[in-house]
Amino acid sequence: MTKTIMLTAAQALVKWLSVQMTEEGERFIEGVWAIFGHGNVAGIGEALHGIGDKLPTWRGQNEQTMAHAAIAYAKTKRRMRAHAVTSSIGPGATNMVTAAALAHVNRLPVLFIPGDIFANRRPDPVLQQIEDFDDGTVSANDAFRPVVRYFDRIARPEHLLTALPRALSIMTDPANCGPVCLAFCQDVQADAYDYPEKFFEPKVWRVRRPEPDRRELDDVVAMIRAAKSPVVISGGGVLYSGAEDVLAAFVEQHNIPFVETQAGKGATPWENAYNFGSPGVTGSECANRLCAKADLVIGVGTRFQDFTTGSWTLFTNQERKLVSINLHGYDATKHGAMPLVGDARVTLERLSALLKDHRAPSFDAESRNNWHQTVSKVTATPEVDLTNYLPTDAQVIGAVQRVATEKTVAMCAAGTMPGALQVLWQSAKGGYHMEYGYSCMGYEVAGAMGIKLAAPEKEVICFVGDGSYMMANSELATAVVRRIPFTVVLTDNRGYGCINRLQIECGGAEFNNMYKDSNIEVMPEIDFVGHARSMGAHAEKAVDIADLEKKIVEARPRNIPTVIVIDTDAVSGLDVGGHWWDVAVPQAGGPERLEHARERYNRNAANQRTFD
Fold it and tell me: pTM above the 0.70 mark?
């Protein structure tokens, strides 16, 4: 006879999560971020209180930013551990939808557990309930469906018996990895059920390393042997596979230079002689020349996003062929690529064994050295009269670079800094964390906290603009009370400087991005230092680049976040590196500046190659 234990569904949920283990003997779901409301406080809230430190609960300030912290944690842990996030029904749940989309795009595991409507429907419509006039089964949580890898609604206690294993199987699957939403009806959370005791036995979740198909291997080996100018594009899959050292050995053994996407940057230190930096829209000059010449492009764990490919105008060699090493056939076959489906580390090892002593023809190594000389110039301390001088974003990056150590992690998400950091930041191994799949403003502060939770030995430097800081900064208070230290470099250019420059580049008038061009009565005078201090952070304003360097070093011993504000030039771009990006320009009905912009657009669009 099957032994059972009577628990509420919420108690069963947290008890089961607490015994899902990694091969290293740690909980896969380390803990739960929670903001309680009427849709989860009595059920999930009481269950979390009861289980205590066996599945710890952490309080945040905003449902979206709690989830951002969870995402940054999972990314830093290379998807080997994760967090859950719970909210009430209604706005608490929909606040998390943006974060779910971010996790989905970046292929990162997060378990979302929003409260849901009453399964019994007796009190309908309950507070915050969205009613669909044509479908009685719909709730606000259905908004999660397109932005998670697996969605389930827990409308009966026994649904957990199938939903929970499905959820973890997705989150630990290297090919299908992504966020999961278990919409938990609030009455069902409190319903009791006789669960099989066996359901709560500890389970170890192993992350697979799928072997590549031998036929695909042979095809790609032949392509590499025939190539005269091959290049490797290193994506985030290299990091998630733990293939950093294997990639470095592969390119050295076979004499193939490589470039790094935003997600893949930092897998190999910048000093590596085969590392030509970033490709595409935010690419280095040497990387983009290399990609333009390439007759074989070998993507490793990359989605070939438009920034990486210059909206598919970067690879101009008419003989160019595309290979995609990826875990999922969906990604591996994009743009007519020759697919090589398998784990990045295993696949590179198999390729190298078959290639034996093959080495590609020589490449232009000097262009890489010239590029790094350019980087040194644009990031150098300005040799000007500093009276009324505002530093550029490149000079801010240079200041942080000069005091960085092997333990420094530069992180960012949106605005000017992601592109500037990708092209200019000289990353140590593991020294870069960028959320650029979704480019979500407001990720930065919470993301920095998540990185530090996952890697307490690291120095986390969060680059954030004033616009993104204004969108989401409240997890500073969470980091203060939990004593999670990191350093925020807040560049204040008095508006959305990045999009303002893009607006101008696309032939548009300066409008509604900078405060000066917005429909306001007076210019705002925001005291970012005072604001950060009000949440308990240590905050100061740097008077110049040298002062910024000094303040970053001084922040290191603190056990709370440090916010360093510095005013920057909103107008100047990098003026180095870069490539075209497909941002549509109006075809008709505009002034002469738009006509010229459209002519430029048409010339570049004519070079797009999206399929071979």
Answer: yes
